[in-house]
Amino acid sequence: MNDAIQDLVNGLAWHNDLLDAIGKLLAEDLIFLAIPVLLALWFLPVGRERALNQRLAGLACVSVLLAIGLAVLLRQLHYQDRPFVSDASTRLLISHGPDSGFPSDHATAAFALAGALLVRRRLLGGVLFGVALVLGVARIFVGVHWPSDILAGAVLGISVGVAVSFGEPLLTPVQAFASRYLPRALVAQPE
């Protein structure tokens, strides 16, 4: 099943220059969308929701870091060649080292970000979940991951993100302390 899905998705590569360019862009650069999302979450809106959004942005960062750390640990326990290493028919569209691809760091980070926001900001979390899915499919399309790499990253990322999001109330005292000493433009006073 893993091989069949990878062959189907990656088999679309090298047939259309525009599709290949879009696939490369999504696979390599879509993850950087997290930066403006987190900045917008931190600084917007100006009203009373801002304090909660800042705590969620902090938890999203913690979720991503924790999930990536667990992915590195999981990679030590289970090595899996990338498709372009073990499957000669893989159409590789981007340059990548032949290290273990399980689980996908890109998918783990993207799903951890979505998971951290799903509980309190369902619409934004849902949109980011969709973006993470697109990123995962793009990583398969360009030939650097198996579907199981993406699935493992998704399960790990969502699990960590959702679990960490329940720690949001613990950040209120930290935020209250920081808001006393830092400008309000930077840290909102919690309600």
Strand residue content: under 5%
Distance between the termini: 50 Å
Helix content: 55-70%
The number of E-state strands comes to 0
What order do the SSEs take from the amino end to the carboxyl end, as H and E?
HHHHHHHHH
Count of individual helical segments: 9
> Which structural category fits the helices and strands?
mainly alpha
Rounded mean pLDDT score: 95
Global shape: elongated
Tally the structural domains.
1
As residue ranges, the low-confidence spans are none
Main pleated sheet: none
Q: How are the SSEs placed, and which strands pair?
A:
Layout (H helix, E strand, L loop, with lengths): L1 H9 L6 H13 L4 H10 L5 H29 L5 H4 L18 H14 L3 H20 L5 H19 L6 H10 L10
Kindly describe this structure.
The chain is mostly helical and 191 residues long. The protein has one domain. It is 67% helix and 0% strand. It has nine helices and no strands. Helix 7 runs antiparallel to helix 8. The longest helix has 29 residues, at 49-77.
Tags for this entry?
0% strand; single chain; 191 residues; mainly alpha
Q: In summary, what is this structure?
A:
This protein is mainly α and about 190 residues long. It has helices at about 1-10, 15-30, 35-45, 50-75, 85, 105-120, 120-140, 145-165, 170-180.
